[in-house]
Amino acid sequence: MKTYHNIGYKIACFGLAAITLTSCEDWLNAPQPGVTKLEDFFTSGEAAIQTTTGCYVPLEWEFNKTYFSEWFIGDVVSDDALKGGQNTNDMSNVYDMENWKTTSTSALLQDFYKAQYIGIGRCNLALEYIPKMELDSTLTPELKERLLGEIHFLRAYYYFRLVRVFGGTPKIDFVVDSDSKWKQPRASAADIYAFILKDLEIAEAGLWKKSEYPATELGRATKGAAQAMLLKVNLYLASEGNAANRGSKSALDYYKAAKAWGDSVIQSHEYSLCPNYANNFTLAGENGQESVFEIQYVEDPTSDYGEGYGFTRGCFTVILTRSRSQVLLGGNSGWGFNKPTANLYNEYETGDPRRDATIFAPSNAQISNPAEEIYLGDRYISLKYGLYNADMTAYPLAHATRGPINNKQIRYADVLLMTAEAALGCQEDGDAKDYLNEVRTRVSLPTYPGYDIRINGQTITPTLEQAIRHERRVELGMEGHRWFDLCRWGVAKETMDAYKATETPEAQSHMATFIKGKHELFPLPSKEIELNPMTQNPGY
Amino acid sequence: MKRPLLFIGLLFCAVHLLGQTFVITGTINASDDPLPLPGVNVAAKGTTIGTITDIDGNYSINVKKGDVLVFSYMGYKTVQQTVQQAGTMNITLDPENLMLEEVVAIGYGSMKKSDLTGAVTSIKSDQLQKTPAAGLDQALQGRASGVTVNANSGQPGAAATIRIRGIGSAIGGSDPIYVVDGVITSNISFLSPNDIQTTEILKDASATAIYGSRGANGVIIVTTKKGTKGKGNISFDAYWGVQNRWRKLDLMQSSEMAQTKLRIDAMRNGADQISTYLNSGFNSWMSLYNTGASKYFPLVQSSTNPSGFDYSSVETDWQDEVFKSNAFMHNYNLSMDGANENGDYAVSSSYFNQDGTIMGSNYERFTIRANSSYKIRKWLKVGEHISFMTSTGRNAMNNNSSPGASVISAALAMAPWDPTHYAAGSVNNQGTDLSGQIAASSNFKNVTNPFSMVENSHPSNKTERFVGDVYLEINPIKELTLRSSVSYDFSLVRNRNFKDQYEYSAYDQATKNYLSSSMQRYSTVLEETTLTYAKDWGKHSFSAMLGQTMEEYNYYSIGGAGAKILNPDETNWYLNNTTADKTYASDGVSLVRRLSFLGRLYYNYANRYMATVNFRADGSSKFPENPWGYFPSTALAWRVSEEGFMKDIDWLSMLKLRLGWGQVGNDDVPSSSFTLAMGSSSDVFYGYPLGSLQELQSGAAVLNFVNKNGKWETNEQWNAGIDFSFWNGKLSGNLDYFIRDTKNALLYVNAPASVGNLHLIAKNVGVIRNQGLELTLEHQNTIGKVHYTVGGNLSMIQNKLIQLNGGSPLYGDYTKTDLGLPLNTFWGYEYEGVYQSDEEALTQLYSYTAQTIGVHAGDARYKDRDGNGKIDDNDKTNIGNAFPKLTYGLNLGADFYGVDVQVFFQGVYGNQIYNALRLRTEGAGDECTLSTTMSDVWVGYSDNVRTALEQQGVNWTTLENRDGSIPRPNGAPTNNEASSRFVEDGSYLRLKNLQIGYTLPQNITQKAGISRCRLYVSGSNLFTATKYTGYDPEVTNGVDYGNYPQSRTFTFGVNFNF
Questions:
Q1: Lowest mean pLDDT: which of A366-370, B614-618, B830-834?
Q2: What DSSP letter does each residue of A84-117 carry, written as one string?
Q3: Whose CB among A500, B58, B360, B998 lies 3.0–4.6 Å from B454's, allowing a Cys bridge?
């Protein structure tokens, strides 16, 4: 309309109008056929559902310029796993990360950072438009509240993924639709945590219970998932490693909040431990009784590599972590990443069935090329996401590199162990033991107290805290939790140093020194600092 | 031209004057028109004796010996001949050299060439028609300064790339627009070159600004043939030609290739294969290689299986197999035209058919065209131009270095010991008879045999296009013309591809037959109205034009695909018959509307001082937030030669200085950059699997927030030029210098990831500069009966991105566009040869240890530019670019005694080509060892391999080549990265065309009712001087992935006029 200010144009336009009897402005600005403008999209309830569904998609992403599955950090960086792969050069970004050699130019960190913000951007767009939408026969008040709950849950989830890896990052809670809004200051980790809690509380209020969803909607965020995340985030803030991020509240305040949210999940009776631990990692067990939140993946026979994010509906984790052995798997073999350490293998108690559900130790005959299958002395194979059959053959993938198995983000066993930890923090030791023992009983292990454990080869009679931490390691091994647990507990330096001493000399020879106060966080990608000036994490 | 003729006339004439009278008779013809000229004045000089020719061009006159007969006719050069004796004097009149009075088309009007103020090049149709080309685009090559034409591809029917004054856009288009009788189009393939009367190329902004937001890349104005006055002209033109490739790569034959490959292979895989080959022979090695376990190969001949397939006797020249010899082309054109004082008409039809030199390629086109106009009233004229074209053709897969995607690359990936088809009696390990079946590749398993590409895939593309306009012209008073026209450009393209079900190898197979089918419809309606006022008074001449145009472009496409047609007969190749993998039909649509106002003022004082001012305002729906653009331009010219003080300089016929400035737009930019759209579908970017069945659910999101305020790119151009003509036009030409800056050039700007989308946003930030010098020279003369012309043009253009303003560098496969570099500069390592030893590698790459270096003896050595003992991205640099320093054309023509000869050279100098095809022949994997240069590949064995070879009785010392100059193909992955190793000099000089014609004497042809009959032979691309080693130095965008080469063509043709 501003063009009307132009007098020349105005005169010309009048001249034309006299000839053609039409308003040229209207004629020029006719809507583009086949293009839905943003403001015209949000007109039906179905649009609200689709927009919400679109917010889940970046959770799935594991590849852009390089693979960036979160377990490369959660497992490989920790004492649970070595990188693996063909040799030390294979996925060199991860080699750098696990040996404390990472720099701010890491392509993996850049990809990971971007993917979370794409998720956040989608949530922000949805939160801008859906609240303003009129209700209709599809968009009932309950549904609208649930959808907004899902979006708040997902935005919190993306921020949580960021804050664990990088500390504070820019807090974007609006639609960035102009380059004048591109530069945003870095928020503190405390601000981000507070923001996450706020989002999760809104989510918890609006979301439906798992049992309230129809079967066709399984996989969406639930009230239980939001409660579990509230438990988790509060527990993170209560933990020693996050002392600086607590704001005005005390550790005990957070323990109490965590305990309360944990109890809500447990008392909802929406979840239970599945009798057979290993069933959690089968296709049949997906979204099962123990599942609180999973990232959904399906067979995707037609995907091409494409470029960048999103060109998949299947996960890469199967092919990335499967054994490279041709003898073992023939044409179904994988790339051998995320190799469990001997240190983890040895921490399982005698008779713990979870060890053999988590780790496979191949015999010499089961290794076809030792140079590529034994990584710095480590021959172990991670089983949980490899889709192996009972006879150590493997489920044949419909696509050469994509697998259908869901990624278990929150299992009920995790909720129990987190609640146990919160209970211990609140000095409610009875509850803590009960929840711990519920997890141990499922795998027929003796209850606490009354057993010894081995850590770094040393046999000890564990304190309740030691027992819970040990249980988290073995129950949730190779599921991407360990590194973040070590950091929040504030024990990364001690644990990693002690673990290093147990590693093979070859593995040790690659490891640099862990610096406390630096290596708990990874550097912000230098590209991002270049485009949006931010203070780098200390030491980088 | 009068003076020299007179001079010659006088020289030849005897000066004996006798009083005897006698009769001279004869016929007068025009050299540019096959018909005899009626009404020509024939007079004896200095007398009152005279006559005119009759309707058949004949005259008869009584004169005295020694009289000088003067033959004059308006528009033709006057001829004087001295009479020696009675008899016949047939005269052919040449059209007057109207260079000064020639009228040329400019945007929305026309102008005397002498009055022009901008940089405009006119090209005569007879020049264009000398090259046997399907389209105007190819025919323009080398014809005009400042215009770079790259034939791009020898694919029949393929369009050439035309760049006028460089490349002005990094993301958007750089193609000029064509204006055919007022219809604006970007695709001129609907027009047969025979139908073209004149072509004007508007180059500088002062000339193109009248086309506003679409003029930035130059404008080519094409005027088609109209009827001329006379009794009506019928002409028939035809040619027939054969085409052949002009070059063949130097490749190894079977045994040499096998040995080279095995020598290399042994470095990695040990002694087994090469010792088998050397000790037990070719067939033993082949049976080892394809192991006999594969059903795709015939069992190999051996002592136990003497009837097996004998690989050692196969010697396939794959280049000969995929390149066809004597590919045929033919063209026919029939046209008729005529005119009287009330109207004119021209109708024509043409048929063009060209077979490609690469198998599986061809093109066929049929056109019809009608132009006419009629004066209904003294003040009212109406007319139309109508043309219809239909074409079909098949494109060869080419210009892709992946052997699955290109016939050439596939041919270069097959081994010379592989037959194209298995010989009779070939049986596989399952006892199946493979006789006649397309052979599997034994060289590299992921290869599609080029024959299966061609024989098992059945693409068909059919285009139908209608372009037409109707117009009326009203002259209420003499000075005022109102012209209004409506044109319609409509095309329908149908693409269908059916692929057979077949199985020739594990890779070369299709488990189901497959059909894809789609249709695209394009239409443009354009309305134009202009009002022109022109008046001369005294020494002043003034004209003004005001105009308005409205345009609507619509695009719609629909297509689908499916597999498994149960009865795969051609009559069943329809989507309804597919029974598996059906995709829903999907459609696409777009709409562009434009509304423009334009005007021009022109003033000329005494033919000396001229000024033009143009203005155009364009409204475009492509830029919703910036719909209006304003494009001004102005130019001044001074005809120095008209000044009084210059009148005495005899040799100077004309001298004009020109200066112009203007702003023009380029709206050919991706419109998706400006429309913020919500994406929604079950595509992987949006959809998410949910529910107990994990069915994919549709999702929605914005993929990329677009740049607000996006708009066209603005080209601002300065031009200074000189037009000159010496010695009465014997030497003429022009010289232009220009600076063309593309401001607001679209580049991608990187957003921080935290904005939450795809992070790359097109924004009008860059500045691209093209500057250059253009020179055109033309000399013509007549000596005796020999008339000859020498014409040449050359251009020097520099291209550079001079401002980024926050934009990001753009990367291609081997190129980078960045600040201070020409667009698409080749970007890579500087190649320094081959590391002759591990120690040498470790010395240069001192940042590594023996364990981590990853580069060894025999690997490529690249220059460590930053000297940090590491080869990484920081060591990449500018290794050349595809912009020629010089582009030129040279045309020589002569005619004498009915024979005409034209020789046309064309070339470029100073550009580079990235020869990516060499990866196929010089090693990106040990199967790529075809080139004969690979005999100098670096070969060195580890102690283990040496020992193993010794144990097998093989003398490894003769197999090694430790001072080889080509990196080992199975070495470090960096060996094949972009580097100066593959950059070659792209300069070439080409004898583009040589044509020799003979016009039969009229007295013979007239008896057959033929007023003119010319026969000719012509050769194209007869000779190419170049250092470039690929198939052809004319490659798309300077990177050669195996481009379809130009062919060497011989044609025979006839021109008849009745």
A1: A366-370
A2: ESSSTTTTHHHHHHHTT---TT-HHHHHHHHHHH
A3: B360
The pLDDT score that the predictor gives to residue B290 is 66
Nearest Cα residue to B133 out of B158, B110, B113, B107: B158
ipTM of the complex: 0.89
**Residue among A16, A182, A219 minimizing CB distance to B755:** A182
List of chain A residues whose C-beta atoms are within 8 Å of the C-beta of residue B692? 215-216, 218, 287
Does the bond joining A538 to the residue before it have cis omega, within 30 degrees of 0?
no
A64 touches chain B (CB under 8 A): no
Query: With contacts defined as CB-CB under 8 Å, which chain B residues touch A170?
Result: 752, 754
pTM: predicted TM-score of the whole model, two decimal places: 0.81
Question: In the block, which residue shows the tokens 């914005």?
Answer: B702
The whole-number pLDDT of residue B677 equals 67
Rg (CA), chain A: 25
- Tell me the average pLDDT across B931-951: 91
Record the tokens describing residue A292, joined without a space. 């609180």
Buried-exposed string A199-235: b where 16+ CB fall within 10 A, e elsewhere: bbebbbebbbebeebeeebbbbbbbbbbbbbbbbbbb
Q: Considering only CA atoms, which of B628, B548, B553, B552 is closest in space to residue B596?
A: B548
What tokens were used for A499? 């673990």
Q: What pLDDT does residue B98 have?
A: 46
Per-residue pLDDT at B680: 63
Can you list the alpha helix ranges (DSSP code H) found in B347-472?
407-413, 450-455
**Alpha-helix residue ranges (DSSP H) falling in B131-253:** 136-139, 205-208
Measured CA distances, B248 to B320, B321, B406, B674 (Å):
9, 12, 17, 47
Q: Is the per-residue pLDDT at B15 higher than 90? A: no
The B residues from 513 to 552 touching A (CB cutoff 8 Å) are: 529, 548, 550
Confidence at residue B72, expressed as pLDDT on a 0 to 100 scale: 81
Query: Predicted confidence band at B11 (pLDDT cuts at 50, 70, 90)?
Result: very low
Query: Is the Cβ–Cβ distance between A419 and A231 less than 8 Å?
Result: yes
Q: Which helix (H) or strand (E) holds B717?
A: strand B713-726
Contacts of A353 by beta carbon, 8 Å cutoff, 6+ apart: A277, A278, A443, A444
For chain B, the average pLDDT equals 88
Those residues of chain A that have pLDDT short of 50 are 1-5, 10-11, 13-14, 17-18, 21, 306
Yes or no, beta carbons of B688 and A60 under 8 Å apart: yes
Length of chain A in terms of residues written: 540
Q: Which of A12, A28, A182 sits opposite B621 (nearest CB)?
A: A28
**Confidence (pLDDT) at B47:** 79
Binary contact (A179, B685; C-beta < 8 A): no
Q: What is the pLDDT of residue A230?
A: 98
Q: Check if B686 contacts A (Cβ < 8 Å).
A: yes
CB B736 within 8 A of CB B773: yes
Residue-wise burial string across B793-810, b where 16 or more C-beta atoms lie within 10 A, e elsewhere: bbbbbebbbebbeebbbb
Chain A residues near residue B593 by CB distance under 8 angstroms: 27-28, 30
Please tell me the distance in Å from B410's CA to the nearest CA on chain A: 22
Residue B43 has phi, psi (to 5 degrees) of -140, 150
- Which residues of A are less than 8 Å from B621 in CB distance? 28-30, 32
Any B CB within 8 A of A9 CB: yes
The tokens for B46 are 């200095």
Q: B314 — phi, psi (to 5°)? A: -85, 135
Chain A residue numbers with beta carbons less than 8 Å from the beta carbon of B595 are 16, 24, 27-28
Say whether residue A220 is in contact with chain B using an 8 A CB cutoff.
yes
Residue B811 Cα to chain centre, angstroms: 24
What percentage of chain B carries pLDDT values higher than 70? Answer: 94
